[in-house]
Amino acid sequence: MPETSLPARSIIVTQHLEAAGVNAAIRVLPDSARTAAAAAAAIGCDVAAIANSLVLVADGAPVLVMTSGGHRVDFEVLRERIGAEEVAMAPASVVRAATGQAIGGVAPVGHPAPLRTFIDKTLAAHEEIWAAAGPPAHGHAAHVRDPTRGHRRRSHRRRAVSAFIRP
Fold first, then answer.
1. Residue 3 falls within a domain, yes or no?
2. Labelling 113: which of 95, 99, 107, 130 has CA 20 to 30 A away?
3. Between the CA of residue 134 and those of 13, 99, 139, what are the distances in Å?
4. Contact 70/49 with Cβ under 8 angstroms?
């Protein structure tokens, strides 16, 4: 049962994770953690164990790209790998519409509708990963053992790719 003192967005994330059979805990951080480095410092984990959930626009449609906090997306390589003509960062309005969440607090689950999702394979190297769980101002992080498992609940497409990242 989700903790009711959490913000509504974090409760939705918790419900989606639980429905997918993912054992996750929402941890309230002392301050906002809008960067992977800030989140890793607050949690006490390696920055590579932070799962950044980035919303991009590929050929006009929002997609979710989950990268290790130690990596950056190489837009050209990602574009080629997913067969898109154009890939760019999504504006804040698109992020909010696609996920119901604000930039800096986008969780990998809990969105109003499924998003085509691409996952950095290097996240699997970590026994535990941490991802945002809704509102960035509250600094929540979801502790998840399998970064791809929460996506199985819905039948949207997801692919693990490592070629689109650069350390």
1. no
2. 130
3. 7, 9, 8
4. no
Domain count for the chain, please give it: 1
Distance of CA 68 to the CA centre of its chain: 10
CB 67 within 8 A of CB 54: yes
Query: In one letter, which amino acid is 18?
Result: E
CATH number at residue 110: 3.90.960.10
pLDDT digits (tens, 9 = 90+) for 93-137: 999 999 999 888 898 888 999 899 998 888 888 878 888 887 765
Is 124 exposed, middle or buried, given 0-12, 13-18 or 19+ CB atoms closer than 10 A?
Answer: middle
Q: State pTM to two decimals.
A: 0.80
85-98 per-residue burial string, b: 16 or more CB within 10 A, e: under 16: eebeebeeebbeeb
Structural domain range at position 69: 8-166
Cβ neighbours, 10 Å, residue 48: 20
